[in-house]
Amino acid sequence: MIFSYYPGCTLKTKAKELDRYARLSAEALGITLEELPEWQCCGGVYPMAKDEIATKLSSVRALASAKALGHDLVTLCSACHNVLKQVNHDMAADENIRTKANNYMQPDEAYGGETKVIHYLELLRDTVGFGELAKQVKNPLKGRKIAAYYGCLLLRPGSVLQMDNPENPTIIEDFIRALGAEAVVYPMRNECCGGYVTLENRELANRRSGAVLESAKECGAEMIITACPLCLYNLNKNTDGYDVPVYYFTELLAEALGVKEGGACDGAGQ
Amino acid sequence: MQKIGVFVCHCGTNIAGTVDVHAVAEALKEEPGVVFSADYPYMCSEAGQNMIKDAIRDYQLTGAVICSCSPRMHEATFRKAATSAGLNPYLVEIANIREQCSWIHKDMPTATEKAIILGKAAIAKVHLNAPLTAGESPVTKRALVIRGGIAGIQTALDIAEAGFPVDIVEKQPTIGGKMTQLDKTFPTLDCAACILTPKMVDCAQNENIKIYSYSEVTDVKGFVGNFRVTIKRKARYVDETKCTGCGICTEKCPMKKVPNEFNLGMNNRTAVYIPFAQAVPKVATIDPEHCNMLKNGKCGVCAKVCTAGAIDYKQKDEFIEQEYGAIVVATGYNPIKLDRYDEFAYSQSKDVITSLEFERLTNAAGPTSGQLLRPSDGKHPHTIVFVQCVGSRDTSGCGKEYCSKICCMYTAKHAMLTREKYPDTDVYVFYIDVRTPGKNFDEFYRRAVEEYGVHYIKGMVGKVAPRADGTLLVQASDLISNEQLKINADLVVLAAAIEPDKTARPLATMLTASMDTNDFFTEAHPKLRPVESPTAGIFLSGTCQGPKDIPETVSQASAAAAKVIGLLVKDKLTCNPCVAHSDEWMCNGCSSCEKVCPYGAITYSDKEFKMPDRTIAIRRVASVNEAVCQGCGACTVACPSGAMDLKGFSNRQIMAEVDAICK
């Protein structure tokens, strides 16, 4: 099965593990991820202003290029996923944005939101199936208590992203269970880590991330997995006193599928 | 030669503010057949009506056009005035230049031009109007009340008191509705059961009231004064006439793990059950989904222990047909489901409950015998947070845009009673606004704040996080002090919005009664006819029409009863003479009209016709029962040969109006 793949800038720099283990795992599961040629940055943040068009164009280019290739587009980074899905929704549902974006780009064929954007986790849930994934697991993570951290961008706004219930999600917990581990459900798993605020108000980001870690720890988590490079950064920079290692979910997947190079995700080296 | 009078109303400034009424009267004077045209400030006033009557007499008018408000408002008024001056009421036409003209335009020249056009159309129609005489139809002197909550009970009691027989059809095994689940009622704090159960008993004992419990309305035919209703009596597997309500079957039933809906699933009941001690009728019902005997034929304990021999596993659903003169809808409400409000952790923690669940927890007949205990561990909660407007006044698309109206008061009641009974408890109430209009209502709320020390905080709760130690971390904003709050609570109570019962929508379809976008029944007029549906003979009682508290529900229930009594005391009803009729020469017998008629007014028969060539032909043609036809016009649209026409709204008349508008 072939999918177009949009890694995004961070996955080429700070979050190489997120990307590398996603590719290795996909290969092990019989899925081909074809990186889009000459993709550009998604824009990083979805522009909320209704008349802001130019900053959405790089996403539209990626979406249109996936349409030309004829495959669904898989994303991985929470921020890229959020921006691409929201811009795609705009192109399908907002005539004003669609018209202006197409007028600006003058493509051979007008783009109207035809590409289906899915997150890697959706690929695992809806295409592979968590039941099938569980069968493919070579090293079941028995006895490990793992907590999912969703952050704010992966699922919201729920009506547009259509991935899971943002206030009480289950997709990553189901993923953890498929790998044979115990999923720790804790209330702060969908709260904000502090995001970009860490650049100008470190103390606030500390409090936000600290609340997440404290809540996870309190509920018995031994480690946390996430899909978002920024979340991972914030949680790792604010671990003071909590001692809960944070990994990308793809690293854990690769470990369970037996394709991870080096050691297990056990906190060593963090 | 037609002699038509035109009367243009100012409606104060309602019309005259945007329409040059004098210009309209002058312009319409020039229309063919118009012999009199004038404007007047209030045509519906006595002086205005006299102006119409005088003109009819003085000019010997053959038709009148009133340019005024909607015919729904004053058509009857003007028709009556015309009748008293000797003009057939169906020779009066209304041109609606208020709702359809002055109210929707801002620019006077445009509105004036449109008003003239609407007047011309009405004149063109009145040229073709024929005098019509209304017939009469009998009235079945029996009323039907659908659902027996406090609204249905009050309506039924009032109708029965006036001497008319009335049937209550209740879906549940007992009447009583939501009020049976409440503990105390605001603002006087009298116990709900103490004031409700005597009324339930009155219903059971009143000779004029028949209760069909565990039953549903499945079909409604006919029209005002002459409804034919099919009622499904669901099999309860217990013979109502034999059961004494002793309850021994419910004690001995081995299937004890059925969630008890009366206590909102907070404890269990048996498969054969009586909902609560004061149920009316006090008769057991077997729940076929959980009874082992009905599911796989293994058990039969209840039949063995029943000394009255009332258990009947072979009972079947029964359908009965009854005739009624009037139908009252009292289908009530339910709290919304909270699955779209997971931020409050309702589905994740047992200690996040709805306000109705809180009622059961404080009710002496509830799962905790009235002790306020946490559902998770049975411990007494020391900090309680109440969240108002959960799903009410919500424009996000998750809930309801309207205010549920009752929550501010019952939350104040819950908070006050908690502080009264457990003074060691800290009570917080989060609100958007506190809305307490109503007699003694604001005083009640102030008592909660001032005397009972309830912490009222303006702001919404953003998240309820169940913590590992069993407490609930409530994150909220205090909008007045501009602070983010974190409260460690033991219990969180959500004031869920209320919505119409799910049975209301299919019932409305059966009754051809209109509803709004929220599935509340629409009243005939929001101010002047609040308890009647626009469909004649259908009346509205209680929350099926909009959110209401108990005092308001009871007032409306009695008002609906008064309207029903006003209908049932009549021996005959004047029919609408604007009914369909079929041109038998044009009818090709296709049955299209019969299929679309919602009232069953059209029948087909073979008739002899003398053909032009002097032969006799037998043809199948439609005929309309004028007493049954309601003049909806569906048949005239369906008829492919143009044989069906509506008196007063004939195709010719409508086309004349269209021509006048397009000229």
Q: How would you explain this protein's 3D organization?
A:
The complex is a heterodimer of chains A (270) and B (663). Chain A is of the alpha/beta class. Chain A folds into two domains: 2-120, Glutathione S-transferase Yfyf (Class Pi), Chain A, domain 2 (Up-down Bundle), CATH 1.20.1050.140; 136-257, Rossmann fold (3-Layer(aba) Sandwich), CATH 3.40.50.11810. Chain A contains eleven helices and eight strands. Chain A has helices spanning 16-28, 57-69, 78-93, 95-105, 120-128, 130-136, 158-161, 171-178, 202-218, 229-237, 249-257, and strands at residues 2-6, 32-35, 73-75, 117-119, 145-149, 182-184, 223-226, 246-248. A four-stranded parallel sheet of chain A has the order 2-1-3-4, with helices on both faces. A four-stranded parallel sheet of chain A has the order 6-5-7-8, sandwiched between helices. In chain A, helix 5 (120-128) packs across helix 6, helix 6 packs parallel to helix 8 and helix 9 (202-218) packs across helix 10 (229-237). The longest helix of chain A has 17 residues, at 202-218. The two termini of chain A are 35 Å apart. Chain B folds into five domains: 4-126, Rossmann fold; 143-234 and 317-332 and 501-568, FAD/NAD(P)-binding domain (3-Layer(bba) Sandwich); 248-305, no CATH class; 334-499, FAD/NAD(P)-binding domain; 580-647, Alpha-Beta Plaits (2-Layer Sandwich), CATH 3.30.70.3270. Chain B has a five-stranded parallel sheet with strand order 10-7-6-18-29. A five-stranded parallel sheet of chain B has the order 20-27-21-22-23. Chain B has a four-stranded parallel sheet with strand order 2-1-3-4, with helices on both faces. In chain B, helix 14 (441-450) links the parallel strand 22 and strand 23 (455-458). In chain B, helix 2 packs parallel to helix 6, helix 6 (108-126) runs antiparallel to helix 19 and helix 13 (407-421) runs parallel beside helix 14 (441-450). Chain B is globular, with a radius of gyration of 31 Å. Chain A binds chain B through residues 159, 165, 167-168, 186-188, 191, 215, 218-220, and chain B through 341-343, 345, 347-348, 397, 463, 465-469, 473.
